[in-house]
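for the writeup, i need someone to sanity check this before i put it in the appendix. the sequnce is what the collaborator sent (i think, or maybe the updated version? ugh). structure was predicted straight from it, no edits. if anything looks off just tell me and ill rerun, i have time this weekend
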Amino acid sequence: MHSKETEAATQKAKDLIRMSVARACCLEPLQEFSLPVDKNALVVGGGVAGMTAALSLANQRHDVYLVEKEKQLGGMARRIHSTLEGMDVQAYLNDLMHKVYQHPLVHVYTEAAIVDAEGYVGNFTTKVRSKRGLTEIKHGAAIIAIGAEEHRPTEYLYGEDERVMTQLELEERIAADDTAITDAQSLVMIQCVGCRNEDRNYCSRICCSHAVKNALTLKEQNPSMDIYVLFRDMRTYRFAEDYYRKASENNVKFIRYEPEDAPVVEAADGEDRPVLRVTATDYILGRKIELDADLLVLSAATVPASTSDEVSRQFKVTLGPDGFFTEAHVKLRPVDFAAEGIFLCGTAHYPKHIGETISQAYGAAGRAAGLLSQDSLIASGSVCQVEESMCVSCGACISACSYGAIDFHENAQGYRAARVNPVLCKGDGLCNAKCPTGAIQLKHFTDKEIVRQLDAEIPDPKILATA
């Protein structure tokens, strides 16, 4: 990188070597830790992602404890009957549930709640309360697959008029052969309800494809039905773009709207029946239009599960700004958390289709199996340590630690001081930087070593004083 400045590059190399040698004089040996690995696994969430991951691990001869808060397994997939590509979701789900219940190594806890979770990679202990009572589960890895939920709209007369429903509610009524749906003369869908706004500044990703799927299903059952889709941006990603074109060819009309000029819905009397009158701006025609609909369907946002905050605190894993769980690295560690031994899959991560959910569940199970296949793990010795005589118990280090590796304890002198769990510590040095008294030092990067490096960079004390 300094090919044209050979003299300066040589001097820089000398400086770096001199600094490294000066630091090496202060280095101390680091003690690594050997940790045994418990061969069991815990899967939190019994939806498609959780069951797929549990079966994958069980088929690799690991005992798996599958914890689900509801009475039944299945999660949100219980409300979905088909995919855009034509997959029978209920048949797939029933087969998956049958395999889970029949597998001797999968232990299912329904109507269960996690009371406490502690430990570290290879050696976790989780307490679960269910109808069986309080159970303490020891496991070496955990997979978080708690799923997501459908947003309950507060706009467009939802909850006030029975003719207004969400896409999932529409699908359930189609599957039940509800004639009030299939015999309707006109239907309007409004996209991006509850998301891509100040409260939820993200795209739910699956809404557009879900709307196209339901529109195509209704057109097959009642070709004369007028269907209008009011959208901000149609995002039928992957090959689902072909189904968007197919919907257009089947006379499903797509009308764009702007968020500052959102559609207005009111109950009104039509020419021959009561209707829901939807007023919107057609930017192609350049004027307002009125659509008289028998039914109004809202593509509601996909929101994080109600238990996300609690699970995040219990397992000491992070949530993103939207409330979904955040992976360690989007490309290098897409199913790992920053906390080792805990993995992620499904819509707890972000809204995704069933195919993506299954793929990610296998990925998380693969990562967990790689950990559980080992008899022991070697933990790094480059961790933080506390000089308790300098600690003032301010708690700055505890709030800074991303891994929950620091807590307070009462030392031999009878006063409270911070303590670092070397197994949980990842050596990022945040606590070291936060400590106001310098009581915490990061081994292999101590203040003494760093200062010695800086002194070696400018060896002349006069120059150092001037600087």
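Residues 150-302 form a domain with the FAD/NAD(P)-binding domain fold (CATH 3.50.50.60). Residues 232 and 259 are 7 Å apart (CA to CA).
thx in advance!!
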